[in-house]
Amino acid sequence: MAVSRQALVARRHGPDTDPTPGFSRIVAALGYDVTETIEQRRREHNEYGLGPGSVDRLRDRIHETDPSLVAVDNRLHEGQLVDLEAAIPGSVAVKDRRDVVLAWLAAGGNRVADNRHTARQLRVHRRELRAGDEPADRSVADLERRLTECDDELDRLRT
Predict the structure, then answer these.
(1) How far apart are CA 91 and CA 17, in angstroms?
(2) 109 Rama sector, left if φ>0, alpha if ψ -120 to 50, beta otherwise
(3) Is the pTM of this model over 0.90?
(4) What secondary structure does DSSP assign to 105-119, as a single string?
């Protein structure tokens, strides 16, 4: 089975957020074909960042188009990313604006962005492990070590 390189973009307009200019072009620069943008006008939802109605629309569109990425044009915290990924079917990756931009900068050779992107992925993975039912102490300890290494490398790069 070929890996889909399609992406859905989801965004929320609200009193505290506006769409990122060129966001779809940045997603496309990462090698994805943006097939659709799902927009919502409302305040941030605590669980997903997007409202439950948008999550339902994402589920429907994922079932129909089978994308490999949902790019959220808003800033989400790690828990919202984990909850949103768990709420949608299949093995669709979910990245927020920060993840997309850092991945794009890292792909262009920016080592600081690469380290920040890796650290962010590790924090999300740590959150996933803690949300699971299985004992994750060893995995979390390994992630903490890798996060410390990334932070040390960032400090070196800043100086």
Answers:
(1) 28
(2) left
(3) no
(4) HHHTT-HHHHHHHHH
